[in-house]
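On to my pick:
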Amino acid sequence: IRIICFEPGNIATDFAPRSMRFAQAISPTSPYNEMRAAVERAFPKMCPTAMPASEAAQVIVAEMAKESGPLRVPIGPDAEHILKIAQHDDGAYEEYVVKELRFDWHPSSGGATHRRSKD
């Protein structure tokens, strides 16, 4: 038995429009509005070009035909880039997300910060 974790980047499907429905009744002052806006700004920078779904399917089928291989299989150049950064350490990934994508996922009104303390 082989286990494979496919980690897709931006694939040209209607996944996001169908799956990413946001509550309409969220208060305009909710800290989640700030986080949602940050996601909307960061996503196009992270995944500028969508891979055709047929190409993603070919990657999956080809990998499944192999008797052995890696546990994690990124699909698309954006996924490869993000996973390469994440493999260094959490700090490198966090720096990429905050500095390059300008995505701070913590609402400012909650007093949280995206910076980790150096232990």
Q: What stands out?
A: The radius of gyration is 17 Å.
